[in-house]
Write a structure and sequence with these properties.
It contains six helices and ten strands, in the order αααβαββββαβαββββ. It is an alpha+beta fold. The strands form two sheets. Strands 1-5-4-3-2 form a five-stranded mixed sheet, covered by helices on one side.
Length: about 290
């Protein structure tokens, strides 16, 4: 009973904070970028900063994390359920593409995790959120982690060109499986393709070995549909749907592009629960 009352109180505080801070949010619209606001909201999970919630539109917030209830009430309930002092948030990368901001974050959120978050803004306020989380594990066969590597954005004039390249790669290689075309996207040689997937080594050779090993074990990775491609300069995020080992999943793949070739890759793969387990009806995608 006490826990239920606490959850209601936490939700009330969040909603009231959002309403009473509306003026503050409007004042900050000009001084803070949407990217800054998204990062501030994520950091508030750890710090409890109440001002950050003012960057969310309390009347329009749509949640696509299927384990979280819709709106600010769902967000508040999750925060209340976190063990006190347990949350840690370290945003490693943040990017902006039009009304979208996407981030790559090191979390302790009900345990160590790596996550991508996507926020959609309207009139300077967050109105929609998607994410993809994976358990945090040790280095891969090339001693790379799920989060290390470059963070600096460059080649802003090539954003659209790089998004087209990744969209073509996802469709040609990941969806259609035309691996004979790999050379159009990735140069041979381990140093030309740095891999952060937890089970795959650098280079096309590492990818080939991993796919061969999965085939031996009867494990299939199938991309059926790409839902959106977002990018800023040399970093491009692809969000796709498919299956892994027979389980319905969401694929978030972050690529770094250099000289019109894919040179680095980070990802998370998250199972999509059966619909009767969803805590909101917005779906995992809906872009």
């Amino acid at each position: 009973m006490k826990k239920g009352i606490s959850a209601v109180l936490a939700t009330t505080v969040l909603v009231c904070a959002a309403c009473t801070s509306q003026i503050s949010a409007e004042e900050n619209t000009m001084s803070l970028s949407n990217k800054d606001k998204a990062v501030a909201l994520l950091n508030s999970i750890e710090t409890g900063d109440k001002e950050a919630i003012s960057y969310v539109n309390p009347d329009q917030y749509i949640q696509h994390n299927l384990a979280v209830g819709d709106g600010l009430a769902g967000f508040g309930a999750v925060l209340q359920a976190l063990p006190e002092g347990s949350a840690k948030v370290d945003v490693k990368r943040a990017f902006q593409d039009g009304d979208y901001v996407f981030t790559h974050t090191d979390y302790n959120f009900f345990g160590p995790k790596v996550g991508f978050d996507v926020f959609r803004f309207e009139n300077g306020l967050i109105v929609e959120h998607w994410d993809n989380l994976a358990e945090k594990v040790g280095p891969n066969p090339s001693s790379r982690t799920q989060l290390d590597g470059p963070t600096k954005v460059s080649d802003l004039d090539k954003t659209e060109e790089n998004k087209v390249l990744v969209a073509d790669f996802v469709d040609t290689i990941l969806v259609k499986g035309d691996f004979e075309q790999l050379g159009r996207f990735i140069d041979d040689g381990d140093a030309n393709y740095l891999q952060h997937n937890t089970n795959i080594a650098d280079g096309l050779s590492g990818l080939g070995k991993a796919l061969e090993e999965m085939a031996k074990q009867g494990i299939k990775m199938v991309y059926t549909q790409n839902h959106i491609v977002l990018g800023e300069g040399n970093f491009v995020l692809s969000i796709s749907e498919g299956s892994f080992a027979g389980e319905h999943v969401s694929f978030y793949d972050l690529f770094r592009i250099e000289n019109s070739k894919i040179v680095e890759h980070w990802d998370t793969i998250e199972p999509i629960p059966a619909k009767d387990a969803w805590k909101n009806n917005n779906g995992k995608f809906g872009f």
